[in-house]
Write a structure and sequence with these properties.
The chain is an alpha/beta fold and about 450 residues long. The chain has helices spanning about 1-15, 45-75, 75-105, 110-120, 140-150, 155-180, 190-195, 250-260, 280-290, 305-315, 330-335, 340-355, 375-380, 385-390, 400-410, and strands at about 20-25, 120-125, 130-135, 185-190, 195-205, 220-225, 265-270, 295-300, 315-320, 365-370, 420-425, 430, 435.
């Protein structure tokens, strides 16, 4: 990673034109076994050690490259080039760190603890003013540079450039990963010059709003339309199949986003109705993302196919919440008022996972089981054992073991193989509602 980033610097300086596991989800088709998850990543201590040593190796190699560039081109031109790629550097090194954690089996929740122990971090957050600091008392990157400085006589000035440009960009990207709101980062102290590194954090920053406000919104939920393709029993805004005549136009929607950014930089959740039923929804998402808002959406999943998933990502959508009211399709469909909408929601969740994780070692597969003899029939018929037993009479249903074996088979495929979907039915079943029952 470091090596590639420094080559980017070199290309920029030379005026190049180059622009800078398995998760298995089962759904219900006619009986239901709920959601099943399995992971084929194995945590091994030697993998952790190897990954960390590899990172240190790439760090030292990067220092030697930048030292050579400084000798040949001068620090001023080198710093100019580093400034041009620092955002890319921050984003890619953070993504690399997450990918490393996935490869060695470290969950995201534990990655923060590992970072704290590695850097000896002091931190404090004040939720009244939405600000705080993180102070690094140790830095492995600076330690690597001290080592090459002692052994090879390299300049400490390049270490200062690292702190100023790349380490700050890495920290900014890391905070953006962990904090679900826009965040501004300043660096009043640097390891190379002050012996410790401090980052000041401000959540939902804006240069326009007064700095003495006691409260600013962190989350804004906006019903962008009342138009909807479901008929939910609990709908609180009386959504309908047609949009209202006085809904905000595209220009008015953009003006509202502009007014929101004058107050803070919140997580802006687009809801409805079904927000994807607005023809200009992707334009609205892009407008908010370009102005520093973290964009979210609440959807029923009915319109989220592969094309929509890609368009949401390209527009700058950060998170999509899809409603799923039951592991039993019939219950969800009754509650939402449209038969089959449960399957659309599950498919949308699966597509989103596959899009998010396609460049990681995690593989996303769907296991679609038919009629399986489980306790779900008791739940479906509210504890009526006689009615539950009748569900499985007259044919041989699947057993839990059948589905488990399918899950194991999917998870045990070679690393380069992703089984997107597996449909498992009893021989007496051809599909939902198509069952050969012989009583």
């Amino acid at each position: 990673m470091f090596f590639r980033m420094f080559l980017d610097c070199l290309y920029l300086i030379c005026h190049s034109n180059r622009p800078v596991v398995a998760v298995v989800e089962g759904n219900v088709s006619g009986g239901g076994v709920g959601l099943v998850a399995a992971c084929d990543l194995v945590l091994a201590t030697e993998n952790v050690v190897f990954m960390r040593l590899s990172q240190e190796y790439e760090t030292i190699k990067g220092f030697l490259i930048v030292e050579r560039l400084a000798d040949e081109l001068g620090l001023e031109q080198l710093e100019h080039a580093m400034a041009r790629v620092q955002k890319k550097f921050g984003d890619e090194t953070v993504d690399s760190a997450f990918n490393v954690s996935l490869k060695v089996g470290i969950p995201k929740a534990k990655l923060q603890k590992l970072m704290f122990s590695d850097h000896f971090i002091e931190h404090e957050m004040n939720m009244k003013n939405l600000g705080g600091f993180m102070r690094f008392l140790n830095c492995p990157i600076h330690g690597s540079h001290q080592y090459v400085n002692k052994e090879l006589g390299t300049s400490m000035e390049t270490s200062q450039l690292f702190c100023k440009r790349f380490c700050r960009a890495h920290a900014q990207s890391m905070f953006e990963k962990f904090i679900p709101f826009p965040v501004a980062v300043t660096q009043p102290m640097r390891m190379a010059t002050d012996g410790k590194c401090e980052f000041r954090i401000k959540i939902a920053p804006t240069s326009i709003s007064p700095t003495n406000e006691k409260y600013v919104p962190l989350v804004v939920s906006w019903n962008v339309t009342l138009k909807c393709n479901l008929k939910c029993a609990h709908c609180y805004i009386n959504a309908a199949e047609t949009e209202l005549a006085d809904e905000l136009s595209t220009d008015a929607a953009k003006m509202l986003i502009h007014q929101i950014t004058e107050v803070s930089r919140p997580l802006l959740i687009l809801s409805g109705g079904e927000p994807l039923m607005r023809d200009d929804i992707y334009e609205i998402i892009r407008y908010g993302a370009d102005r520093g808002l973290r964009m979210g959406m609440g959807s029923n999943g009915m319109l989220i196919d592969d094309e929509a998933t890609k368009k949401l990502e390209d527009a700058g959508m950060g998170t999509v919440a899809i409603s799923l009211d039951s592991s039993i399709a019939e219950h969800h469909d009754d509650f939402r008022g449209v038969k089959g909408c449960w399957q659309y929601a599950v498919d949308a969740i699966t597509k989103g996972l596959r899009m998010d994780l396609f460049d990681t070692p995690i593989r996303v597969s769907t296991v679609d089981p038919g009629l399986v003899e489980t306790e779900f029939s008791l739940v479906r018929f509210h504890g009526d054992k006689e009615r539950a037993a009748q569900t499985y009479q007259g044919y041989k249903p699947l057993e839990g073991r059948d589905i488990a074996e399918a899950v194991v088979w999917v998870a045990s495929r070679p690393e380069h193989v992703q089984v997107a979907e597996v449909i498992v039915l009893p021989t007496a079943q051809a599909g939902v509602g198509l069952l050969d029952k012989r009583v």
